Structure to design on (960 residues):
């Protein structure tokens, strides 16, 4: 098979569903993902180790208890394996896509290989370049972080980072762990840690459950979500994990590593109260404020983005079609909504690709079902975003010397100076004047904090455009030689 | 004296604002986005004498270099990140080396310091076997965004006002006098006695809007930025064919190798040139070519990663000289655009030119400013009717 | 677990299970940092754990700036604490 009909970037729930649906309806697919196993962050699995080297390796079986809805995952995997065996699909795992560009009327995905097991780069390195008339960007999301005092101490991680250590490596990040931030994702992280032998000293959820009160219709449309929540509540009780709502971690304490966290109650306006703070000894903490969609490849391809209420950029789309012909998207890139929504969107997007490529009219009843399901899940996601918003007073958990940008070591004071004394008016100008967001991670970690800080200081949402990252992953120059 | 509106808050607009304010003008800077939002934030910040052959542009650059050093003294070098980095031009073949030697001889005659060196003496990590290196200690660098901001702040202290976030959408000139009325996209208007077109690559469109079109077009370029690696490249190092590419009028893609280290430890790699309008799309092939050229010059870079690439538009003018001076067709309009890749370097001298010309009678620009002849840059050189 | 697999971290041997990243193996050994920042010399280790943040950079077999959360541990690998941007 040379040149597939569609290249899918991202093998999480959305990309997997899209790929197997496309294959089922006769299209050929190239699927590219940075991970060593398909599944994305949601169904993250240990890197498979084969043969004699595999003795003692972490197995998928031992992390199965951490996963939700594994039968769906296994069904998708086996359909993908069948497609690969039949020559209808190719998978390129361990490949980080560094950019996309137009090629021969379609789109080319350019990737380089991660260091393989054994620790060495693939001999000679080199670049993977696959082109297709249709490109599906299903690149998921990562934890949204906000700065707070001491957040750069080793042992302070994102909630997703704790989860990745568990699912991908069977390692608990610490023996006494705090989980904090906001959103239902904190619950499975806490449960997973407890099941792996760690003591979870508390789940500190910033928002009170009463914030869900306004969204009962959305909840009623998504009974499965309710059941899932009840399941985790029972697991928390079983492991005696205290769930403390209306609280946030305002400081991580320690010299070379985190040794304790200070937890504050939030007042009715979302400001951490000065009184009644408690300090809890921990050796690891995971904080998550929801998720940030990865829209880099879509922005590079020229796709329009829109902004959610909380200032995150998402790819503008209709039934998976972006504003650019031949470029599609599915899953968290269209707005964070979880795995069930990503699965539905992945399938829906495959039908859009199919219709555009072949004129083939897919099963109308199935489309109606998917569209209804997507609408219901999106209403739930919108409710969740409001019920688990960042508290208005989050800035109070920072000090002037707190680093906003961890890579370039830019303190909050520098950002304040740019806004107050140098008349910077948006996040773009702040970045240019302070270097916040110009380091290794290219602002992926600090962008949310910088935008929120700008909004806090200027009294309205930051309006600067989606950050353009034409290089979506650092790429070794050796890998680019010989393929111009 | 009266009020002058400077269109464009990039490095050239900032310098025009400062020098006009110093000359006593009431200055309003308008920009559709903000300070250094366009080309000034998409370049390396080079202040090069080395890439200019003897002629008007080199004369302007030598003057501008003196202005930059003075600005460094007045405003503080830190605020500009002014760095006396020095340039190193290398040639791989004896033939190319001879061509460059002749070029350097002409430069020395007008006061450029250019010393033939063994490249390895200045750059220990450079590839072996190069035919020649010419060291240009006068080449400088600034951080163009910080410099624009710092210079504009200095203008603000003299009363200049910045109005950002809204483009100029219409311009009217009263019949009786040379008073301008510029309408902005947000519905407001600003009146002025003089208007300065410092809109960089958009100078062509802005000049047409103002009624005095000049042929300035965008010329796209990509710059690669590596991971921070420390001081493995110490100067601005480029290959001798760079000057040929800059001077070419070919619309197609050209790449030449330009490599330099920065304070932050990252390495900047350029430079590509192509005329594709304002096409913002990513071209991975350009990145591949630039990377290959850089690795050929500094083999150590093979294992260094590219963190990002920025793509910008240089203000290209067909005769490769900036357009600076009063527009003979439009009383009160002074152009200050079309500097192509040399805008940061030439900005202060351009500001000084503009300040001198604002006060001159219409169409009677001073023959010299700071000892540099103004005629080669005059907008009138294109004739009356210019297709923009 | 059968034969113990190890890599070298500075002056000690760190056991790992095949398939684990360098960062996961170090964490399992209660080691939390393996680089210091260029400007202030602060210790850093895992943060995002999924290859986004680049906080966990470390020198592997003499090559600086490798993401410990992604590089799979291997027998005999030499991992060294990275100071600043590292040396090459």
């Amino acid at each position: 098979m040379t040149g597939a009909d569609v290249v899918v970037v991202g093998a999480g729930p959305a990309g997997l569903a899209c790929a197997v649906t496309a294959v089922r309806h006769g299209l050929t697919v190239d699927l590219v993902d940075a991970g060593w196993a398909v599944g994305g962050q949601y169904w993250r699995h240990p890197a498979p180790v084969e043969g004699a080297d595999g003795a003692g390796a972490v197995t998928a079986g031992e992390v199965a208890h951490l996963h939700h809805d594994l039968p769906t995952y296994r069904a998708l995997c086996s359909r993908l394996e069948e497609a690969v065996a039949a020559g209808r699909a190719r998978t390129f795992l361990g490949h980080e896509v560094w950019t996309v560009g137009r090629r021969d009327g379609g789109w080319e995905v350019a990737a380089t290989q991660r260091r393989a097991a054994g620790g060495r780069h693939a001999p000679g390195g080199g670049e993977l370049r696959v082109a297709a008339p249709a490109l599906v960007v299903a690149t998921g999301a990562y934890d949204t972080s906000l700065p707070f005092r001491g957040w750069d101490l080793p042992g302070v991680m994102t909630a997703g980072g704790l989860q990745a250590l568990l699912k991908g490596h069977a390692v608990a990040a610490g023996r006494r762990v705090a989980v904090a931030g906001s959103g239902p994702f904190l619950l499975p992280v806490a449960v997973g840690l407890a099941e792996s032998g760690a003591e979870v000293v508390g789940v500190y959820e910033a928002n009170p459950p009463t914030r869900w009160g306004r969204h009962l219709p959305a909840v009623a449309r998504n009974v499965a979500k309710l059941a899932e929540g009840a399941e985790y509540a029972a697991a928390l009780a079983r492991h005696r994990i205290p769930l403390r709502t209306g609280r946030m971690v305002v400081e991580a304490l320690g010299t070379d590593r985190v040794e304790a966290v200070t937890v504050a109650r939030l007042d009715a306006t979302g400001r951490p109260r000065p009184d009644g703070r408690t300090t809890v000894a921990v050796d690891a903490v995971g904080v998550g404020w929801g998720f940030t969609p990865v829209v880099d490849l879509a922005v590079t391809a020229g796709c329009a983005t829109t902004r959610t209420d909380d200032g995150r950029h998402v790819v503008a789309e209709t039934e998976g079609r972006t504003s650019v012909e031949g470029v599609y998207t599915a899953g968290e890139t269209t707005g964070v909504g979880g795995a069930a929504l990503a699965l539905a969107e992945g399938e829906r997007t495959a039908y859009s690709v199919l219709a555009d490529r072949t004129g083939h009219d897919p099963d109308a009843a199935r489309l109606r079902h998917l569209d209804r399901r997507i609408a219901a899940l999106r209403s739930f996601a919108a409710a969740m975003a409001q019920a688990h918003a960042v508290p208005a007073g989050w800035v109070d958990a920072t000090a002037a010397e707190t680093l906003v940008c961890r890579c370039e070591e830019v303190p909050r004071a520098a950002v304040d100076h740019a806004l107050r004394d140098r008349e910077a008016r948006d996040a773009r100008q702040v970045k240019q004047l302070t270097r916040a967001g110009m380091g290794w991670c290219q602002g992926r970690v600090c962008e949310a904090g910088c935008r929120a800080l700008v909004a806090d200081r200027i009294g309205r949402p930051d309006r600067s455009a989606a950050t353009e990252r034409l290089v979506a992953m650092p790429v070794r120059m050796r890998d680019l030689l010989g393929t111009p | 004296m009266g009020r002058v509106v400077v269109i464009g808050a990039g490095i050239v607009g900032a310098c025009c604002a400062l020098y006009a304010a110093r000359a006593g003008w009431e200055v309003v800077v308008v920009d559709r986005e903000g300070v250094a939002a366009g080309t000034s934030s998409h370049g390396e910040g080079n202040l090069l004498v080395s890439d200019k052959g003897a002629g008007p542009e080199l004369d302007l650059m030598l003057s501008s270099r003196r202005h930059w050093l003075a600005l460094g003294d007045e405003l503080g070098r830190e605020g500009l990140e002014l760095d006396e980095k020095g340039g190193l031009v290398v040639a791989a073949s004896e033939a190319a080396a001879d061509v460059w030697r002749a070029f350097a001889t002409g430069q020395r005659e007008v006061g450029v310091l250019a010393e033939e060196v063994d490249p390895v003496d200045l750059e220990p990590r450079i590839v072996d076997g190069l035919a020649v290196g010419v060291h240009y200690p006068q080449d400088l660098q600034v951080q163009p965004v910080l410099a624009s901001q710092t210079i504009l702040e200095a203008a603000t202290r003299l009363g200049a006002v910045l109005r950002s976030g809204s483009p100029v959408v219409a311009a009217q000139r009263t019949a009786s006098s040379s008073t301008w009325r510029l309408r902005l996209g947000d519905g407001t208007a600003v009146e002025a006695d003089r208007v300065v077109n410092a809109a960089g690559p958009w100078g062509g469109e802005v000049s047409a809007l103002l009624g005095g079109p000049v042929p300035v077009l965008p010329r796209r370029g990509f710059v690669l930025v590596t991971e921070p690696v420390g001081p493995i490249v110490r100067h601005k190092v480029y290959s001798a064919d760079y000057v040929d590419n800059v001077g070419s009028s070919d619309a197609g893609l050209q790449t030449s190798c330009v490599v330099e280290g920065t304070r932050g430890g990252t390495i900047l790699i350029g430079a590509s040139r192509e005329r594709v309008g304002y096409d913002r799309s990513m071209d991975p092939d350009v990145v591949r070519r630039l990377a290959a050229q850089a690795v050929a010059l500094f083999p150590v870079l093979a294992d260094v990663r590219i963190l990002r690439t920025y793509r910008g538009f240089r203000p290209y003018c067909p005769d490769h000289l900036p357009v600076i001076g009063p527009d003979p067709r439009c009383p009160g309009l002074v152009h200050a655009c079309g500097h192509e890749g040399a805008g940061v370097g030439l900005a202060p001298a351009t500001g000084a030119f503009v300040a001198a010309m604002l006060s001159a009678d219409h169409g009677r620009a001073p023959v010299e400013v700071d000892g540099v002849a103004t005629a080669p840059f005059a907008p009138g050189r294109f004739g009356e009717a210019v297709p923009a | 677990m059968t034969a113990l697999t190890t890599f070298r971290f500075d002056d000690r041997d760190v056991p790992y299970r095949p398939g684990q990243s360098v960062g996961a193996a170090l964490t399992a050994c209660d080691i939390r940092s393996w680089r210091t920042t260029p400007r202030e010399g602060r210790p850093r280790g895992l943060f995002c754990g999924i290859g986004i943040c680049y906080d966990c950079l470390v020198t592997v077999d003499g090559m600086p700036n490798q993401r410990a959360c992604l590089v799979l541990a291997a027998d005999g690998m030499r991992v060294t604490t990275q100071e600043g941007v590292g040396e090459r």
About this structure: Chain B has a mean pLDDT of 93.
